[in-house]
């Protein structure tokens, strides 16, 4: 039997307005014209000198402090030398031996319980450009066998935060959970948008396996450029199985860089894995050491928001929510904010009931419509008004779900929809008594079977009464009256 040893390198684009070492704007690669946000600095022209983006450093410190890292009073930028067509300078400005921060941690909630994953380092660097490879197809005008690659340097020089974990992860599930937790943290901090479809957050997984009980590390492979949690989890799971099978067969695992083939759902070799010496690191001669004053660090620390883990713990303790509910609510900061605004607007509603409505009915409507909380027509105050009507007995829960759909579609308040459609709950005992009597009188055969011992028919009678009331009858009053009348018939038998 084998166990997996996994470490993650996470590259997060920092949400600044300009690039890491020049004044070029950071643009949306899906919208901007190729090579429209470039200058001599980010294209590597001779004589162009870099200048550090202060806001990028601030965001890096926000992330590092939130991970509990030790901040270096002085860090060094270095040149990481390698040739690739999307790297215009022929090197990448990064941090190597003296990074911005080290020795942090991030807690995850896995299926086997909470685990603390150590963070080795957090450092700043610049992103590369983007290559698009064009190959001939049956419909392509290109001659057979010919193709070309296009380079867009709009992304070259965009600030990147690299967060490197220790090899503490032990499964593909844990790798995904760690990635999700880190994304949530960065979004809470405003450091990264978390929009993985635009490639602003990318993962590289280092995977090896070893016999259970062994202490040393096996030969690892690195899976590059994973830009979804699904790809991260599936590629790591596949690589664990592949390496374990090689060990069982007595074959060596080759240290190399792998890519994830989404179509075939397999990892595939890309190139030999580079070692640190291959990059020929040396200090960037055009940048002085990055000195971070203690006063600035403390100012940033004081500005940090309540972080996901702290909010999770508070939701469990203050609102008595289950860990499952709290985890769903705090995963997205706008959702957690919406939930707490709902509780403030509806003090009579229990936190558990509010959580059920937010994560159940509201999420369901949003998923169907493809919307988000940013453009939601139902404010926390509006939903509070609906839940207050349920608590006061003016409408029942099935009716409330119908009303919420109307609120979601029209933006109208619950009161207006209930009044316009005549959806107020029927709680009048005399009226419900007549409905129950009518249903029992109209179904003598079912009544006889019930009296003979088929007690499950009570639920059928309940359904018939609610249907006759068009779902507007108070369920508890119906149940009580139905029980009373059936008991009378039973005693009179």
Please write out the topology:
Layout: E1 2-13, H1 54-66, E2 70-71, E3 74-75, E4 77-81, E5 91-95, E6 101-110, E7 113-126, E8 130-134, E9 148-152, E10 159-165, H2 172-189, E11 201-211, E12 221-226, H3 229-248, E13 256-261, E14 266-272, E15 282-283, E16 290-291, H4 294-303, H5 308-319, H6 323-330, H7 333-345, H8 351-369, H9 380-391, H10 397-410, H11 414-421, H12 429-442, H13 444-451, H14 457-468, H15 475-491
Parallel strand pairs: 12-13
Antiparallel strand pairs: 1-10, 1-11, 2-6, 3-16, 4-5, 4-15, 6-7, 7-10, 8-9, 11-12, 13-14
Helix pairs in contact: 2-3, 5-6, 7-8, 7-9, 9-10, 12-14, 12-15, 14-15
What does this structure look like?
- This protein is of the alpha+beta class and 493 residues long.
- The protein has 3 domains: 299 residues, no CATH class; 116 residues, no CATH class; 63 residues, Orthogonal Bundle (Arc Repressor Mutant, subunit A).
- 40% of the residues lie in helices and 20% in strands.
- The protein has a 9-stranded mixed sheet.
- A hairpin with a 2-residue loop joins strand 6 and strand 7.
- The protein is elongated.
- The N and C termini lie far apart (68 Å).
- 34% of the residues are buried.
